[in-house]
Design brief:
The chain is α+β, with helices and mostly antiparallel strands. The protein is built from 15 helices and 14 strands. α1 (2-41) packs across α3 (90-102). The longest helix has 40 residues, at 2-41. It binds flavin-adenine dinucleotide (FAD).
């Protein structure tokens, strides 16, 4: 028997080696053709070999893993790119687009690598990654109250650079500091300042992109239609108390003073009261732009059930609140946001949806029951309203302001068809071109309503985003006023008994 196993094992091993070698060989021929093309299409032909990683390159795996932000897609069976290209000069981007097109390979574009489904670095067909991480400059112009930020910069680096230059400016974007500008702002970009300031995409003044022909365009040369499209066109008696509070939160949070953002978390936890029993905890975390006294007075009037007291409040600067939300210890220097935490993915699965009518009390109790049964997943509720509703819905392709509107999808398809008729910039969830428009309704429905975060937004830019010019809000400019004090409170409402 032992002999049989050995003799069987050998051809299997040989077959495996042959398979690995033949995929390396395929990758090598793609590498040769791609490199030759890059050398022809850039004026730095001697340097471009340094920015292309084939599967046989010793650094290939680490370059790939650095920006895999989700361990679900960091396994041996996850599909791998034939090549990874890491441009260092703006002229390389156009050449990469031209060369990926000429060798007929799908191009995936990655900035921060935080896509929930790994769309920027995973594919079912052979593909090349255009990795934008080297483009991370953030140039803040305080006099002009604007900032040029490159697509490979992170949200944390943007916050840090603004804070470094000014203590009275801020920027309304997401909470996780390592999320990339390239995917984040193009998807809308929402965070704790959204009720007072709106979405990140509402502050885009200009952008530089590379089109399907490899040309670098700015707002003027791309035209207003494409500029529009790239801006977001991605228990027991206690039980009734919790249910009432969670129900009331739905009425209060989206309509209360714009300076107040109240995030609510529902999580299953082990009961401290009854051993071996699960309960659900509702936590309301608030961020208020003003003083503790003002916040206590406001909640006393609008949401007295929370019983907020001044001693529950922490007053701090905007930049400290950013660190707090990102789970850094008190007193951490803002420098911490410059750490990109490379190659440190954890497992994650998230889905988002929009609630247009408050969930009934029965519905909430059903959710509590399901959370207890499942034991692990939690819910995060972010209230919209405020400034979000004041921006005209047609202003950006982000469709989720006062509701979901399919006419934007149609406009997106028209722009996409005009600028990328052969659908070169495509991914598994991207906006289709016109011939397949009849499939649009069901496509959009599944994409925008029942999918992951990122697919709630415009996915699959019809171009490569190189950099954006953003307005940074401060008192007196066209982007409304910014109070300096942020008050944070956490109220862990009630634990619901499992029974
Ligand atoms: C832990 C975590 C926390 C998050 N928190 C928030 C939050 O608070 N608020 C919020 O709004 N969102 C949040 N998100 C969602 C996040 O904004 C999106 O997933 C976003 O698309 C990630 O951008 P990225 O550049 O890091 O990702 P990538 O994976 O690099 O890219 C995401 C998508 O954008 C495309 N893309 C990236 N760069 C470019 C470019 N330069 N040109 C063209 N296309 C490009 C990719 O091809 C892909 O389709 C969070 C995500 C995670 C994982």
């Amino acid at each position: 028997m032992r002999e049989f196993h050995l003799s069987l094992a050998f051809p299997l091993l040989l077959l495996l080696l042959l398979h690995v070698c033949s995929s390396w060989a395929a990758s090598d021929s793609v590498y040769d053709a791609f490199l030759k093309c890059l050398q022809t299409n850039t004026n730095q032909s001697d340097q471009v070999s340094n920015i292309v990683y084939s599967q046989t390159n010793a650094s290939y795996s680490i370059v790939l893993r650095n920006y895999i932000r989700n361990a679900r897609f960091n396994t041996s069976s996850t599909s791998k790119p034939l090549l990874i290209v890491t441009p260092t000069d703006e002229s390389h981007i156009g050449a990469v687009v031209i060369c990926a097109k000429s060798i007929g390979t799908q191009l995936k574009i990655r900035s921060g690598g935080h896509d929930y489904e790994g769309i920027s670095y995973v594919s079912d067909v052979p593909f090349i990654i255009l990795d934008m991480f080297n483009f991370k400059s953030v140039s803040v112009d305080v006099d002009d109250e604007s900032v040029w930020v490159q697509s490979g910069a992170t949200v944390g680096e943007l916050y840090y650079r603004i804070w470094e230059k000014s203590k009275v400016h801020a920027f309304p974007a997401g909470i996780c500091p390592t999320v990339g500008i390239g995917g984040h702002i193009s998807g809308g970009g929402y965070g704790n300042l959204l009720r007072n300031f709106g979405l990140a995409v509402d502050y885009v003044l200009d952008a530089q992109i590379v089109d399907v022909n490899g040309k670098l365009l700015d707002r003027k040369s791309m035209g207003e239609d494409l500029f529009w499209a790239i801006k977001g066109g991605g228990g027991a008696n206690q039980n009734s108390t919790t249910t009432d509070i969670v129900y009331k939160w739905q009425q209060v949070a989206p309509s209360i003073d714009n300076a107040l953002f109240m995030r609510m978390l529902l999580q299953p936890i082990s009961s401290k009261v009854t051993k071996k029993t699960k309960t659900v905890r509702a936590s309301i975390i608030t961020e208020y732009l003003g003083t503790s006294d003002q916040l206590v007075a406001l909640l006393d009037k609008e949401f007295p059930e929370l019983g907020l007291k001044k001693e529950d409040c922490m007053e701090m600067s905007w930049i400290d609140s950013v660190l707090w939300w990102a789970n850094f210890d008190n007193g951490t220097s803002p420098n911490a946001m410059l750490d990109r935490e490379l190659d440190s993915a954890s497992f994650l699965r998230r889905k988002s949806d929009y609630v247009q009518k408050p969930i009934s009390k029965d519905g909430l109790e059903w959710i509590f029951k399901k959370l207890i049964e499942q034991g692990k997943p939690g819910f995060v509720f972010n209230p919209y309203g405020g400034k979000m509703n004041e921006v005209a819905a047609s202003e950006t392709p982000f469709p989720h302001r006062k509701g979901i509107c399919t006419k934007f999808s149609t406009r997106l398809v028209k722009v996409k068809t005009a600028v990328d008729p052969d659908n070169f910039f495509r991914n598994e969830q991207s906006i289709p071109t016109l011939p397949s428009c009849e499939r649009l309704t069901s496509h959009m429905h599944s994409q925008f309503l029942h999918s992951t975060y990122s697919t709630l937004f415009l996915n699959g830019f019809p171009c490569v985003l190189y950099q954006m010019r953003l307005c940074i809000p401060n008192e007196g400019v066209e982007c409304t006023s910014l109070p300096l004090i942020v008050v944070l409170t956490v109220v862990r409402v009630v634990a619901v008994s499992a029974s």
